[in-house]
TrEMBL record:
Source organism: Laodelphax striatellus
Every Protein kinase domain range: 1-318
Pfam families the UniProt entry points to: Pkinase
Protein name: Protein kinase domain-containing protein
SUPFAM superfamilies: Protein kinase-like (PK-like)
Length: 352
C-alpha cells in the first residue's frame, strides 16, 4: 500500500504507476455508487476503465480497518480471470483507496433491478454460475472460503467478462504452526459484519456449533444465488431473522418460481407486494428440471451430503452455457451521477 500526501489527484498517480490506465473520460468526482453498510461505508468513483473505491478510516472502527487491510492482502494474492483483481491501493491521511477494473454493467443485482425483474434468462444463469464455480474452485484450492456469494457480488462487463467480488467477508484457512494454508481446517469463526448476507449464509454458519463449516458453505450460498438470479429477488426476502434462521436450520429449500412450484411459492411472497404482471410471468413460465435440480443439491441442509464445487463443475445444466454469451447490446450500462446529485440516504448497490 502506498502512502502519499493529503492533497493528490489519484488519476495522476495512476498514470505514473499503471501502464494500461488511460486518460480518464470522466472527472474524479463522478460518483457511481455508495455503500452504506455501517461496517464498510465507501464510495466508488469512475475513471476510464477503472473504478476507485474510497474509504474514510474516520468512519470505521479499528476492526473494520483490519478487515480492509486483510481484504487488500488477500486480493493481491489472487490472480484469476473470474476474480476481481486489485490494480493498486493508496493511503492519504485517513482515506484508503482501492483501484480496480471498472465493470461497466455493474452487478447481477443491478441487471435484474433495471431490466430483468423476474430473473435472468436460463442460459445466462448457466454462464454466470459456471464462471462463479470456476472462481470458487480457484479460491477453495487456495484455502479461501468466500462467505458472501450473492448476485450483488457478481459483476459483469460489456466484453462478457464475469468477476466475483465481495472478498472482505472471506476467510483464509491458515495453520497456526507454519502459516501455510490448511485445506482440511474446519472453521468456527462467525463474521460479525455478515448481517447483509444472512439470507445467503448456510445453515452450518448460522448454527455456530462445534462442528463448524467448510468450503461447502459457499455451495449453499450459490444455491440461494441461483434462486435469486432465476426469480429476480433472493429467497427468504420477507422473513424476520429469527424465522429465517429456523427455516434454514429445519432444512427448508427455497424455490425457483415457475408453473411447477406456484402453489408453494405464492403464499411465501404474499407480503412482498409483487406486481400482478410479475406474478403472471412466474406462474406461466417453465424452468428446466436441470436448473431446479442444481439449486436443490446446492441447498442441501446437511453440508456433508452437499456436493463440492468440483462435483458441480460438470453438472448437466451447464451444457446450456456452452452455447450462450452475454449480449453486449442487452446489458445496460450503469447510470452515472455527480456527487452533488446523491441524497445521503441513497445507495446504489455496487459492492466490490
Amino acid at each position: 500500500m502506498h502512502n502519499i500526501s493529503d492533497e493528490f489527484d489519484i488519476f495522476d498517480l495512476l498514470r505514473n504507476m499503471v501502464d494500461d490506465v488511460q486518460e480518464p473520460s470522466h472527472e474524479a468526482n463522478t460518483l457511481i455508487a455508495k455503500n452504506n453498510n455501517p461496517h464498510a461505508r465507501s464510495k466508488v468513483y469512475l475513471g476510464n476503465a477503472i473504478a476507485v473505491k474510497k474509504y474514510n478510516a474516520e468512519d470505521l472502527c479499528l476492526h473494520d480497518i483490519y478487515r480492509i487491510e486483510d481484504e487488500i492482502s488477500l486480493l493481491k494474492q489472487l490472480n484469476h480471470q473470474g476474480v476481481m483483481n486489485l490494480i493498486s491501493t493508496f493511503v492519504s491521511g485517513t482515506k484508503i483507496a482501492y483501484v480496480m477494473p471498472f465493470m461497466e454493467c455493474g452487478s447481477c443485482q443491478n441487471l435484474m433491478e433495471s431490466k430483468f425483474t423476474t430473473g435472468l434468462p436460463e442460459c445466462w444463469i448457466a454462464l454466470i454460475v459456471k464462471n462463479v464455480l470456476e472462481a470458487l474452485n480457484f479460491i477453495h484450492n487456495n484455502g479461501i472460503i468466500h462467505r458472501a456469494i450473492k448476485a450483488r457480488h457478481i459483476l459483469l462487463n460489456r466484453d462478457g467478462s464475469i468477476k466475483l467480488t465481495g472478498f472482505r467477508y472471506a476467510f483464509k484457512k491458515i495453520s497456526n504452526d507454519d502459516e501455510e494454508v490448511d485445506k482440511n481446517m474446519t472453521v468456527h469463526y462467525f463474521p460479525y459484519d455478515s448481517t447483509p448476507n444472512l439470507k445467503w449464509l448456510s445453515p452450518e454458519i448460522l448454527r455456530q456449533d462445534l462442528l463448524g463449516y467448510t468450503e461447502k458453505s459457499d455451495v449453499y450460498s450459490l444455491g440461494i444465488t441461483i434462486c435469486e438470479l432465476a426469480n429476480g429477488l433472493p429467497p427468504f426476502e420477507n422473513l424476520e431473522p429469527k424465522k429465517l434462521l429456523l427455516d434454514k436450520l429445519s432444512g427448508v429449500v427455497p424455490l425457483i418460481f415457475d408453473c411447477s412450484t406456484h402453489l408453494e411459492f405464492i403464499p411465501s411472497i404474499k407480503n412482498l407486494a409483487t406486481p400482478s404482471e410479475q406474478l403472471d410471468v412466474y406462474t406461466t413460465r417453465s424452468i428446466t428440471t436441470s436448473l431446479h435440480s442444481l439449486k436443490n443439491i446446492c441447498c442441501i441442509s446437511n453440508y456433508e451430503d452437499r456436493p463440492t464445487v468440483d462435483d458441480l463443475m460438470n453438472n448437466e445444466f451447464f451444457i446450456e452455457s456452452e452455447k450462450c454469451v452475454l449480449i453486449p447490446d442487452v446489458l445496460p450500462l450503469i447510470e452515472f451521477k455527480k456527487i452533488e446529485d446523491f441524497d445521503d440516504e441513497e445507495s446504489i448497490e455496487w459492492d466490490f
